[in-house]
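Supplementary Methods, section 5.1.

A reviewer requested that the exact input to the structure prediction be made available. We therefore reproduce it here, unchanged from the version used in the analyses.
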Amino acid sequence: MRFKNLKRKRVKIIKIKLQLFLLDNLIWVMIIFLFIFNAIVVPKFFTYNNVLNIFFHISSVGLLILAEGIVLLVGKIDLSVEAILAFAPGITIVISNRLFPEINPIIQIAITLLVGIFIGLTNGLFISRFKMNPLLETFAANTVIRGFVLLIIPFSIINLNPVYIFVGNARTFGNIPIAVLTMLFSYLILSFIMNKTRFGRFLIATGGNPNASYIAGINVNNIIISAYALSGFFCALAGLLAAGRQSTISNVMGQGLVMEAIAGAILGGVALEGGRGTVWGMFGGALILGLFNNFLTLLAINVYWVTIIKGSLILFAIMLDSLKKRAREVLLYREKLETLGTIILPIKENNKS
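The structure derived from this sequence is encoded token-by-token as follows.
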């Protein structure tokens, strides 16, 4: 009887662990379902060129999701990601063309990335050192930076150097865009950082419990600043891809993408309160947004409905985050009870005998 009860409880624990696993990887269940649904409903969806097109169109927003996700992991938020995307390449090209018309395009790329890092560092310093509210600070930063973009780029910048737009414009074997490979490589690098380095562990710890992290000897302020700097880097890289894809730099580049970046990160399992999330979950968030956009485009849905559906998707992401948090707490509580039962039950049986 004792062994039957123990076996039953162990089966329950395994079921709870499986439920937790599915909950943490819900994004991939959703992607599989949406992919199958689209393949059945949408004509010419399941073709090589269309799948490639989905990945190509999520390359920029995928990097923005990565940028937003890093900041969310430390329990903060960044509303300036879309403005950095436009400002970093815009200011680089405007100044270098006016002051150094013969400048090497490789240097222009490096400056673009440094501009993104600098803005990220500035945001991080204001938030960590001056204790400014991250929502309000980055909202103000977004407004100021977008204003500068409108000021310095009244008209689209054309005739960009082919080397400067290479990562966003060129293609390689199998017609695969370099932009897609750049995005995937960025995810691989950040995945390594998060899983194999102290910095990655410190990011999660800071977001999970900043006070405990501080007591444990982690420099919380430096981690937050580093997260924002890394976020700025990926925003600037997203700007390079966007400029390459369009072969121009316009003052509306990235406009409205901040909410998609937040929604993608949350759909991918990054907790709004920080401390929980994975890099490949963020990639799943980018992919599901790409599938939705492709679905709406191929079916030629009215543009007004597209806005409504995208807004609903963002609302769904926020609701899903709340529901997943509650479900996770319930499952973890049940797992503790069942685990405790497997310890107590043999003791009770021994006492009876």
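The chain has a mean pLDDT of 88. These observations are discussed further in the main text.
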